[in-house]
Design goal:
24 helices; Recoverin, domain 1; 70% helix; single chain; disordered C terminus
């Protein structure tokens, strides 16, 4: 696509096509540094500010090794995700890869599992937000109802997601960077403190007389969710410059950086303060371990500053997490595996409002009904299982390439297939060590996924090829008059003059043209026209949905 092509369209007055060209040109805007920043922002949050105390409750001060082990288990999955992302850049991320590899049944299971894991991670962030908010309000002698605060924050997050606030990332990244940077500075200062004890976290990690190796695996499985953001970045492959190089490099560099941060910070925390400071007065893991650490080694005022910044960090993390998890429902609805309202885009705010609302309501139920540790366990368990299946996807697609001639990754995993096999085995061991709750959670995802497919997806998914064939037969060889009418229908349906149509607007345009199909058939035609999978179609995509436009 060149400048001349865009200029020609502009001279013809085809504004929609020009907008599309510019958008496509901007899509490849992220360089290596951009990929690293986005990936780090997706990973650092509740994993750093909440999980250390829960891990320490299991295995004591040696938790830095648990974070390291979790990173090593993530590594094969991150490399496999890079390979899959280099050939499939559609909206929906990991769900798309699994659905295209294994078919609609496992696609439904994996999509719902991914949705559950990301909403649970966001729920965990809100729980952590509650603890740090309590520290701030207690310091200023203000009494608040913690559950009311959480639900109010969730309601605000839901509204902001529906409104489509564009500046979240510009707010989130500096706050996250400053908070993490301040914590790292405090940790560096502690290295020179007279009470710093290197042996405490080392003995806690490797001395089997003090720590059962099984406990290491259990702690690693619990903190696995801290690295969940590493696979998010694969979904933006279409926006990355030179993705075959920058995408895998960015994922691996960010994984290395965040592993160093997690391991070094937790090491220093445990070496700086003696005793079981990560437990509260009842003997349960604290939900605000970073505040407790800073309060102990620096001052209460600095601890409160950290706590306030952590509140902002986790609210913004939950804000982006709700939208990320709702995208799985959106992608599944686009594949006719879930009801059509879940792929509806709000015509004014351009967000999948019903998918966001369902996600938020489910989060609220989880927060109210599940113990905080179970939320972390289930989120980690789902993520481990997804990583395992991603590794398996690469093996299957490589081995069955003759049946998948579309699979031509520009980045190919090194050490194939041994890296993937190791990742699958290691993930399976962690799930087993996690215990019955993680296993039952996985089984529940399978049962719910199969039931959902049989109750809804099976009836609608099998109709996917029928309407387009009918449409092709009915609307071939358009005349100039036909094209003029179709342009007019597009303009009339574009209520907010956005130069694109949502599914509901598209259906209105079809009906205005006296084109009558079932709801599933309209959806299928729309999805065929929406080639980039963003939930909108511009004028060019609309006209190209009518066959043989090139014969004008």
């Amino acid at each position: 696509m060149g400048l001349k092509s865009t200029t020609d369209k502009l001279l013809r007055g085809d504004i929609g096509a020009v907008v599309s060209d510019v958008k496509n040109q901007l899509e490849r805007s992220l360089n290596l540094i951009g990929v690293i920043i986005i990936s780090l922002a997706a990973m650092i949050g509740s994993g750093l500010f909440v999980l250390p105390s829960f891990a320490a409750e299991i295995m004591g001060p040696g938790i830095w090794l648990a974070f390291l082990l979790a990173a090593l288990v993530v590594l094969p999955g991150a490399i496999s995700k890079s390979e899959l992302a280099s050939t499939m850049s559609e909206s929906g991320g990991s769900y798309v890869y699994l659905e295209r590899t294994f078919g609609p049944v496992l696609g439904t299971i994996s999509g719902l599992g991914l949705w559950a894991s990301f909403l649970l991670k966001s729920a965990f962030a809100l729980i952590g937000f509650r603890a740090y908010m309590y520290a701030v309000t207690t310091y200023f002698d203000v009494t608040v109802n913690s559950m009311f605060v959480i639900m109010s924050a969730l309601l605000l997050i839901t509204i902001l997601n529906i409104f489509g606030i564009k500046k979240v990332k510009s707010f989130q990244t500096p706050i996250l960077a400053f908070t993490t940077g301040l914590l790292i500075v405090i940790c560096i200062i502690q290295l020179f403190d007279a009470n710093f004890d290197f042996s405490r976290p080392i003995d806690g990690a490797i001395d089997v007389t003090k720590n059962d190796p099984i406990l290491l695996g259990e702690a690693a499985a619990l903190v696995f969710v801290a690295y969940a953001g590493i696979i998010k970045v694969g979904a933006i492959g279409g926006e990355v410059k030179n993705p075959q190089k920058n995408l895998p490099s960015g994922m691996l560099y960010s994984l290395l950086i965040v592993t160093i941060i997690y391991c070094s910070v937790t090491f220093i925390m445990m070496a700086s303060v003696d005793g079981t400071w990560w437990l509260d007065s009842k003997g349960d893991a604290r939900e605000d371990p970073v505040f407790a650490f800073v309060d102990a080694v620096a001052s209460t005022k600095i601890g409160i500053t950290i706590a306030f910044l952590a509140v902002l960090t986790m609210i913004s993390g939950a804000l982006s997490g709700v939208l990320a998890s709702s995208r799985f429902l959106f992608a599944m609805a686009r594949d006719n595996l879930l009801p059509q309202p879940l792929e509806d885009i709000n015509t004014k705010f351009e967000t999948p409002h019903w998918a966001i609302i369902i996600t938020s309501l489910t989060m609220a139920i989880c927060i109210v009904t599940l113990p905080v540790k179970d939320v972390a366990k289930l989120a980690s368990g789902f993520q481990i299982m997804v990583i395992m299946v991603l590794n398996l996807s690469v093996i299957i697609l490589r081995r069955a390439n003759f049946a998948h001639d579309w699979y031509h990754p520009t980045f190919r995993s090194p050490l194939y297939p041994w890296l993937q096999i190791i990742g699958i085995i290691a993930g399976g061991v962690l799930v087993f060590i996690m215990g019955e709750k993680a296993i039952f959670g996985g089984l529940a995802a399978v049962i719910i996924g199969v039931a959902t497919f049989n109750l809804y997806g099976k009836k609608h998914y099998e109709n996917r090829t029928t309407p387009f064939q009918t449409f092709t037969q009915l609307f071939s060889n358009p005349t100039p008059s036909d094209l003029k009418i179709r342009r007019a229908a597009f303009k009339a349906a574009d209520v907010y003059d956005n130069n694109h149509l949502t599914l509901s607007e598209f259906i209105s345009a079809m009906k205005a043209l006296d084109i009558s199909f079932s709801s599933d058939e309209y959806r299928f035609i729309f999805h065929k026209a929406d080639s980039n999978g963003n939930g909108f179609i511009d004028i060019e995509q609309f006209l190209s949905s009518f066959p043989c436009e090139e014969e004008e």
